[in-house]
Design goal:
Length: 335
């Protein structure tokens, strides 16, 4: 049986009860934490160990009588509702419906659920493999990637509003369903299948010895496994671009004057335009002169405004600003 939701609550509760057993030495509670028999990925294992140490330290400060009361309360008075579905598809549908109420999940968490449903034709081992890659990537990093980079990029080159990425906007990344019979859908699925047959890496080698990038931000996204590969590919590209920019402009970004919120917005704009350029062409053609050109384009906004806000950057990127960038959409030009 697989758990679709509440993994964190169950794991935390198991850690707590295990710590209470170690403190009280009461054999009655020895076999409480069955979840520790499960296998966890590297990130989860590290987190469990860290949390175990923290909780164990806190438990050592609690009176043993209070611990006994707590364990008794959890085991004898709390109720756990287990909902079992007949299929994985139903499980994820239930997960979506429950998490659309009350406090919302992060958009990338809902996308993960949606895209897993689209992998219904893939084997269980394939799903486990792709989800382990996803879960071993910082979830905060993935959330920011969609909010500050990918959503902007797929909107701005079309001169569309890229401001404020919310749950309602996840449709931007749902992609083409495998059962769609529209001509453009069939064409793009076929093209992506052709690329996937080469190997399972991020870059695909042809007989000429050249490589082709399997993704482009201006092209439709295929739902399912391709979404996860797409996300991880652009997470790696972001890291590569940020590291390159920080190295090339270390004298500038190392200056304490470049620490305001407005500067953060402009630096993200700079990273985005460089990412988009590399995505369209490749890293090899990003000469120092072209990189400096994009730097000047992005920071012209900073020089002409006393304060830069998200709205300022959003308008500037679309060529809607009334400063130095009027009617110049750099993303559309690159596209």
């Amino acid at each position: 049986m697989n758990v679709v939701d509440c993994q964190q609550r169950l794991t935390t509760l198991s850690i707590m009860l295990y710590c209470f057993y170690k403190r009280t030495k009461n054999e009655k509670y020895r076999n409480i934490s069955k979840l520790f028999d499960a296998e966890y990925n590297e990130v989860s294992t590290r987190t469990i160990i860290n949390n175990l140490e923290t909780i164990m330290r806190k438990v050592s400060e609690i009176d043993e009588v209070i611990i006994e009361r707590y364990i008794s309360y959890v085991l004898d008075e709390c109720t756990l509702v287990k909902i079992v579905t007949d299929s994985e598809q139903e499980a994820f549908q239930f997960f979506d419906s429950q998490n659309s109420r009350g406090k919302e999940l992060a958009p990338h968490d809902l996308l993960k659920s949606y895209q897993l449903r689209e992998m219904h034709a893939d084997s269980e081992s394939e799903k486990v493999k792709i989800i382990n890659l996803w879960e071993n990537t910082s979830q905060k990093k993935l959330g920011l990637l969609f909010e500050k980079n990918l959503f902007h990029l797929v909107k701005w080159y079309k001169t569309q509003d890229g401001l404020n990425y919310f749950v309602k906007d996840i449709k931007t990344f749902k992609g083409i369903k495998k059962n769609s019979n529209y001509n453009f859908s069939v064409y793009n699925r076929a093209a992506n299948l052709y690329i996937e047959r080469f190997n399972d890496e991020g870059m695909y080698e042809f007989t000429s010895g050249k490589h082709v990038n399997q993704f482009q931000l201006t092209q439709p996204l295929i739902a399912g496994k391709r979404f996860f590969q797409y996300s991880l590919h652009y997470a790696d590209l972001y890291d590569l671009v940020e590291e390159h920019i920080d190295f090339k402009f270390k004298d500038i970004f190392g200056n304490r004057g470049f620490e305001s919120t407005g500067d953060g917005y402009v630096k993200t704009l700079f990273i985005n335009v460089v990412m988009f350029y590399i995505d369209k062409f490749n890293f090899d053609v990003l000469t120092d002169s072209r990189l400096f050109f994009f730097f000047k384009w992005a920071y012209s906004l900073r020089l002409t405004m006393k304060a830069v806000y998200k709205e300022s950057v959003n308008n500037y990127a679309q060529g809607k600003g009334d400063r130095v960038n009027r009617e110049l959409n750099m993303f559309s030009i690159i596209a």
